[in-house]
Automatic annotation (TrEMBL):
<dbReference type="InterPro" id="IPR015943">
    <property type="entry name" value="WD40/YVTN_repeat-like_dom_sf"/>
</dbReference>
<keyword id="KW-0812">Transmembrane</keyword>
<keyword id="KW-1133">Transmembrane helix</keyword>
<keyword id="KW-0472">Membrane</keyword>
<feature type="transmembrane region" description="Helical">
    <location>
        <begin position="40"/>
        <end position="58"/>
    </location>
</feature>
<protein>
    <submittedName>
        <fullName>Uncharacterized protein</fullName>
    </submittedName>
</protein>
Amino acid sequence: MTNLHELFEEATTVAPPSRLSVEDVFAAIQSRQRRRRVQTVLVAVAVVAVTATAGIALKSNFAAPPPADGDRPVSVVWAGRGDSTHLYLVRNTCDRSPIAAAELSPNVRNPGCSELLASSDGGATWLSRGDVAYPPRVLGPRSLLQFVGGAASPAGTSDPWQAFELSTDGGSTWRRLPSEGTPIDTMPPGMKVIDGFSGELMAFDPEQGRLRRLANQPPLLRSTGFPVTAGPADIWVSGLNPSTGRLAVAVSHDAGATWTKRDMPGGRVIPQPTLPSDTLSDSVGMPVQLIAGEGDTAYASVWDASAKPAAAARLAGVESWLKTYRTTDGGDSWQAVADGSTTPSYAWGWRAANGRIVVALIRGDIGTYATSADGVTYAFTAPPGLPASALVFTDGSIAFGYHAVYFSDDGWTWREVWRD
């Protein structure tokens, strides 16, 4: 989850701050995330997935997959990356699993059972950073944000900023997150964007040591969460064009200073009475799943409500398909790759440096991947180094399973960087 407002509001509505437990916070947050995951990958009215040329940044997901090996506790709770050398993971240190079996995402976590580990050499060695109350959000190579609760200010008013702690040394030390700074013109080099309390994009400013809103926000009614930082200056978001009511993609190639917005061709108009003033609600049939990366060539896949025949041979066992569009000019224009729906429904996807689109499919046999060179024809192919087991991709270059973490420099060839 990348939206600070939801993280705070959802958690603190479970119980008054004075009685808020770690279990309550985790359950509230994961309940919302679980509903969104189901809506996004199974029954969403529209799903937009932007996959760009070296693009390997996915939406954050703090959920570990359900255990598949009997009573053995799940070890890896979360994994993330700051850059190609700064990697992070949270491991379960107790003799019981931190998640409930048969759940799409964890429902209860065990307090005092999560240890943060950090690597500054691409996963060759790992150091303990101590216990954490909740898996952190990666803001930059050595900048982390974690929810800790305790949001009551001395005056008795709710101060959401006091519910978070910040680390600028890779998790070695933590301090309370300062209040928001003045708007910033562009995303600082090496940083990532997240959703703030107002639903607007924010970036961490290492010089001021605080989060700051981007002065120029993307011109969309966005699905809450999941902005994607791709490369040093590219930011991709999706949502609705407020002028047309159609699904749209906005991209900035100058770190958020300016934006290009384009509607997806042929998309249906979302009725105006259902449009909220700031972000898309669950009732609109969203959220929108984003996958984006650096470069001028990108793909956008939209759920095909017209149920047109596929323009290419379908993969066995895949029940729903997406209509795919492509841009070769950095998001300035989009064209359909074929007349019908060609992209299989997937839980995670990215475009590797070799140009192949890689998707982790929504199927009963977990650990199934498909690849395509053009967004039209797909084949069952697993990227080298990825196991045929359930994985969560917190970033298109880092993934974790029950007992291991995997990393890729190019989105195609993967290697194991940690195992319990």
